[in-house]
């Protein structure tokens, strides 16, 4: 059985932050980095870490809000608080923390970054600034406003056609700017993968996860 733990690691500038780390029972020679929503390292993020560890990947989830408010875990009805912390978060600092996580993950082989909601935007940015083997973005908000630099690696995108936060014209803009990458649209709303939220859509969540695992197998296998 896979096991997880909360550890602390240090970024290049000396800042220490929390990190969920989970080791699979039968590991593949590869690792996955999960990037959070604006609610912090919630139970949903823990469950995603376990999900990918159960698929055989060394899996990590950095606490990207630690530089603003350490230990942030918010209920889903505190979206404004999450946005306030997000707006205070520096892209430079987040990239430093992701780079430190990636350095740790590289010990196990190839590395993928997978982000959800705000984390979907941050994953896009990370893949545009540093070396990843592949990137997956789930309903990444505001990507259409921050299209460059584009990811340097194979990338996969998942969106809902009823997502009021990311209208389909914005998705089309992202797609046009990233030719040759994989895009999937589901009959679902925002955050369809989170089973702790009313917008959860089991069919879309299961299909998108299966597609993600196939994508990882394609790009992380040695």
Structure description:
The chain is of the alpha/beta class and 222 residues long. The chain has one domain (3-220): Alpha/Beta hydrolase fold, catalytic domain (Rossmann fold, 3-Layer(aba) Sandwich). The chain is 35% helix and 23% strand. The chain has 6 helices and 8 strands. The chain has an 8-stranded mixed β-sheet with strand order 1-2-4-3-5-6-7-8, with helices on both faces. Helix 1 (43-54) links the parallel strand 3 and strand 4 (58-62). Helix 3 (91-105) packs across helix 4 (118-129). 44% of the residues are buried.
Secondary-structure map with pairings?
Layout: E1 3-10, E2 16-23, E3 30-35, H1 43-54, E4 58-62, H2 79-88, H3 91-105, E5 110-116, H4 118-129, E6 134-138, E7 155-160, H5 168-177, E8 182-186, H6 202-220
Helix pairs in contact: 3-4
Task: Please sum up the structure shown.
The chain is an alpha/beta fold and 222 residues long.
Mean pLDDT reading: 96
Please indicate the percent range of residues in DSSP E strands (runs of 2 or more).
15-25%
SSE arrangement, N to C = EEEHEHHEHEEHEH
User: What ranges have pLDDT less than 50 throughout 5 or more consecutive residues?
Assistant: none
């Amino acid at each position: 059985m896979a096991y997880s733990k909360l550890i602390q690691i240090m970024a290049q500038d000396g800042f220490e932050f929390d990190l969920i780390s989970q080791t699979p029972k039968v590991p593949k020679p590869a690792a996955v980095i999960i990037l959070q929503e604006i609610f912090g390292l919630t139970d949903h993020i823990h469950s995603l870490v376990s999900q990918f560890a159960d698929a055989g990947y060394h899996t990590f989830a950095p606490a990207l809000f630690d530089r603003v408010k350490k230990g942030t875990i918010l209920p889903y009805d505190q979206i404004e608080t999450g946005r306030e912390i997000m707006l205070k978060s520096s892209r430079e600092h987040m990239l430093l923390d992701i780079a430190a996580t990636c350095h740790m993950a590289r010990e196990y082989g190839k590395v993928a970054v997978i982000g959800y909601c705000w984390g979907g935007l941050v994953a896009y940015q990370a893949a545009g600034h540093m070396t990843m083997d592949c990137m997956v973005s789930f309903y990444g908000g505001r990507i259409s406003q921050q299209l460059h630099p584009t990811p340097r690696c194979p990338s996969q995108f998942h969106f809902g056609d009823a997502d009021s936060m990311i209208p389909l014209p914005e998705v089309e803009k992202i797609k046009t700017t990233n030719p040759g990458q994989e895009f999937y649209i589901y009959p679902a709303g925002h955050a369809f993968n989170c089973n702790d939220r009313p917008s959860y859509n089991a069919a879309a969540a299961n299909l998108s996860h299966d597609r993600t695992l196939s994508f990882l197998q394609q790009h992380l296998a040695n």
